[in-house]
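Hi there. Long-time user, first ticket. I'm pasting a complex I've been working with (about 690 residues overall). I'd like to know whether the download I got is complete or cut off, because the file seemed smaller than I expected. Thanks.
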Amino acid sequence: MFDLASFLPRAVMQGIPLLYGSTGEILTEKSGNLNLGIPGVMYVGGICGVIGAFFYEQSTPAADMNAFLAIGIPMLCSLLGSLLMGLLYCLLTVTLRANQNVTGLALTTFGVGIGNFFGGSLIKLTDSEVPSIALSATSAYFSKSLNVGGWFGQVFLSYGFLAYLAIVIALFASYFLKHTRTGLHLRAVGESAATADAAGINVTKYKYLATCIGSMIAGLGGLYYVMDYACGVWSNNAFGDRGWLAIALVIFTIWRPNVSVLASILFGGFYILYIFIPTGTNLAIKELYKMLPYVVTLVVLIIVSLRKKREVQPPASLGLSYFREER
Amino acid sequence: MNKKQSLFHIAKRDTLPWYKAVLIRGGAIVLALIVCAIVTTLLTGENPIKVYSTILYGAFGTSRKSWVTFHNLAILLGISLAVTPAFKMRFWNIGAEGQVLIGCLATAACMICLGGKIPNGLLIVIMIVASVAAGALWGFLPGIFKAKWNTNETLFTLMMNYIATQLAAFFIIVWEVPKGSGKIGIINQNTEAGWLPVLGGQRYLLPILLVAILTGVMYIYLNYSKHGYEIAVVGESQRTASYAGIKVERVIVRTMILSGAICGLIGLLLTAGTDHTLTTTIVGGRGFTAVMVSWMAKFNPIMMIFTSLLIVVLSRGASEISSVFGLNHSFADILTGIILFFIIGSEFFITYKVSLRKGKKEA
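Hi, the file is complete. Here it is re-exported in full:
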């Protein structure tokens, strides 16, 4: 029988990194920047957290570890790393007006490279037999949950604080985009930078801020994955294609972070559905189930473009850089 | 207007003499190599000159290494050539990864299902048709949706990549040899049915020659044919194109079919030409790298030879470094990333002129 009470928490845990990634990317795309570097940014966010935690664990015996520092150091490192990636993307696309697709793809190559390189170097430092680093002490702080028994506790209260933070950030981003003046300005920049500029909005500032903050949010997704979902174990390439799935989620939710909260759980569910559906000996079918999130996203993308409703379109100037003297 | 004036004045350049453009690009690459050297020294403590000579040794050190390098170059160049017509049309096809993989899948399907049942020559013809058709289909779908309903092609092709990957994963398990291994292994190892012929005793030679021909054909197609002209006009402005009587929708669909078909053909070269197997990672991210190769070369097929050479040498060299200095292979990605950033950044100085503002009088 299908075990919903154990399926749901796993779906949520799969969904949270996607939620971080998609919230960050929505914020970024609303400013007109299509940041295809998000997968790279999430890798960097993850590995920077790992590096921070690694050196803290090395310098302090597990008994003396301070909960505040054990969480604070990896988080700060992760935010800093992804901020730098965001800045790099902005420098190239906003200030130097480079092509966003190419810059994004380069950023992904670079970010994944950094993740795997430093991951590999740390693994060598530890001299361990298995090709991974285990930061169980730090992870324990990250994944500390309320631990209430019963199905209610299992479904709603069994996650580390970063999971709840993701939902808060997504809801806040949704409120920010829809109900604040700054959010309105940001959307204006993404729809038509020239019009926004004429209305006295500082286009460059908005693009920089939205992209950098978006990157930092996405980076937390990488951190959550390593510290909570993977129980503090970093192994190279384990993060996989979740970054691209986060970008798919952006389209799926039609650029709405509040929808993303539930949609990310749905995607997380798609991602692990193959484990829960009894297929008997036919293992090949499982591979087809893994296709689901992408097919569904594609269908949504097509339906959105068929309906041509104005509210559900991508930001109009998505992917274009803005140069004031070129109108 | 603004009280605060920015420090620099930026204006668009008209046209830059070619030698200046080359100078700027060359400068960017040199600068990038210097930064790479510094990063290498910081991360590994090795002498950067030694690292670079190791890179060159890894790429061209022995004749076998050179062959592999040139084969990798051919494959990457081929994929870059495939995506170029679409890019020239400003159609951001980042689905080359999937288009090549589906070509590999179609090839493998023919080899496995028909191998030994029909004459080898006929089999290879069927394989060519199948791989080209599969790639073309993977290009046609985003193309038709873009043309008819303006569906975002970047995201569409991105999703198609993963659909292709999962399809391949599905069939790998269906055809796995031996059962339960999750791998196909070498297809038709004993009969060699469906293997492309080996030219001059060197199995890498055929793909290299084919891609060399393709480079020339693509150069002529883009620069001297009516199709190429239409692609360029659509890329500059769809409105202008439709005023000039060019059927924009048809050009988009036709170009995407071409783009996908060439990708499918590269898939054939990979599976039937050299690897003789199918894995989900057989393309290995080259579909994405090709985007950057093509863009760095400004969509010029001849220039692409050099840009793809740069990437391939770095990547081959980095795997040599990783074994010599005990680093991991991802080091190549970091170096590639740094070089790309510099080249991407340098384009700005080619398109725009930057001058310091001269005090307040001008403001």
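A couple of notes from our side: The radius of gyration of chain A is 20 Å. The first strand of chain A starts at residue 133 and ends at 134.
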